[in-house]
Write a structure and sequence with these properties.
Helix 4 (133-142) packs across helix 5, helix 4 (133-142) runs parallel beside helix 10 and helix 8 (220-236) crosses helix 11. A hairpin with a 2-residue loop joins strand 13 (310-312) and strand 14 (315-317). This protein has helices spanning 17-26, 60-74, 92-104, 133-142, 144-150, 166-171, 184-194, 220-236, 238-241, 244-262, 266-284, 301-307, 323-332; strands spanning 4-10, 30-36, 50-53, 80-85, 88-89, 111-113, 116-117, 127-129, 155-157, 161-165, 199-201, 208-210, 310-312, 315-317, 366-367. By secondary structure, the chain is α/β, with parallel strands linked by helices. It has an eight-stranded mixed sheet, with helices on both faces. It has a three-stranded mixed sheet with strand order 5-12-7. It starts with a strand and ends with a strand. It has two domains: 4-216 and 299-367, Spore Coat Polysaccharide Biosynthesis Protein SpsA, Chain A (Alpha-Beta Complex); 220-295.
């Protein structure tokens, strides 16, 4: 039985796709699935990789939902889901230890985040902070690194690479198909924390390499889509964010635009201004989806909801329609606790227990939100 389902989402592939798929196929107890949102056009993939294509450009989260649904329809559900961008590379020592590492974490851990390296070898952006009026305002003044240090309980992995338990993913209803390209993991982790879930972080010794931007480039339309997704997030989480967060985030983008203009970074200024315009348009027009009629040919939200539904509590229904139910069911599964405090980690296995690996597995580090 495969204990790990690795889902790679692609739109036309990347220069690292074949290498990534070959590593996943060779990984112990791993089932590799490639969801191609464009077309392979006859391009070969490594033997043993299941390919899902023909569903149209349904975006990132919906594509992952589709792969998970096929996996659980085919047989027993795997223990873990590994969500992967097509422009990620997994170093050999990380690939070798990854299944054992995930098996080591106690059942109370729902998600494992990993450190990123950039292609030039320096650290990459692997963590974000859940948006709130306070965190967004703080980032504007002090930067994201300072916000991560200030609110460690709001940390979450970025969507390019992370592992989540499949039962947890299903209880949450998976990714919300209303997001086409951005904020889908932010929304997922906000719901996870609201349901009392826990995130642990793998040690710096087990990184992955993420190029970033290779799969989408610098399209101005995608900058607008990033703003639109922020508007979707604001509506989805209005009960906790209020209407102040969109205003704070808009101010954050305006300040960023001015800063980039002042330093002569015109491309970055255009990006920030494009996101701000997308946020404003998304708030004013909830049904606005600019990517649907673009060269990206994005599938509309109605199609994404149909393609991306996941079975929830024994019934098949769209994940985006009942996020509150998913959170309530997951919270109830945690013995009625309204939140989960950081637990004392179990002792890490010693070097000999990892056979040929160079060092012990990491100490568990977890976060929770009340």
């Amino acid at each position: 039985m495969h204990s790990l389902l690795a889902v790679v989402v692609s739109h036309g592939g990347s220069t690292r796709l074949d290498q990534l798929l070959s590593v996943l196929v060779a990984m112990n107890a791993c089932r590799a699935v490639l969801v191609e949102n464009d077309t392979l056009a006859g391009r070969p993939v490594p033997a043993g990789v299941r390919v899902l294509e023909g569903q149209g450009n349904v975006g990132y989260g919906t594509a992952v939902n589709l792969a998970v649904r096929h996996a659980i329809e085919d047989g027993p559900a795997p223990d873990w889901l590994l969500v992967i961008n097509s422009d990620v590379t997994i170093p050999p020592h990380t690939a070798e230890v990854l299944p054992k590492l995930l098996a080591w974490y106690p059942p109370s851990v729902d998600v494992v985040g990993f450190p990123f390296l950039a292609s030039e070898g320096g650290p990459g952006r692997s963590q974000g902070v859940l948006p709130t009026p306070r965190t967004s305002a703080f980032i504007t003044l002090r930067g994201e690194a300072a916000a991560l240090a200030r609110w460690p309980e709001l940390r979450h992995p970025v969507g390019a690479f992370f592992a989540i338990r499949v039962p947890t993913f299903l209880r949450l209803g998976g990714f919300d198909p209303d997001y086409w390209m951005y904020y889908e993991e932010t929304d997922l982790f906000a719901r996870l924390y609201a349901a009392g879930g826990r995130i642990a972080w793998a040690d710096e010794e087990w990184p992955v390499v993420h190029v970033g931007g290779e799969t989408v480039g610098r399209s101005g339309l995608l900058h607008a889509e990033l703003g639109r997704s922020a508007a979707v997030y604001a509506r989805r989480h209005r009960a906790t964010l209020g209407w102040s967060w969109p205003a704070v985030h808009g101010g954050q983008l305006a300040v960023l635009t001015v800063r980039k203009l002042a330093t002569g970074r015109l491309q970055d200024a255009r990006r920030a201004a494009g996101i701000l315009a997308g946020l404003a348009a998304g708030l004013a027009r909830p049904s606005w989806e600019p990517a649907v009629r673009s060269r990206w040919r994005a599938a509309p939200a109605e199609t994404r909801r149909r393609v991306g539904y996941l079975p929830l509590a024994g019934a098949a229904r769209p994940a985006a329609t009942r996020p509150g139910t998913a959170q309530a069911e997951m919270a109830g599964a945690r013995s009625g606790a309204s939140s989960v405090a950081a637990a004392v980690p179990a002792p890490a296995p010693r070097l000999g227990e990892l056979e040929s690996h160079r060092s012990p597995l990491p100490r568990e580090r977890s976060s929770s939100v009340e």
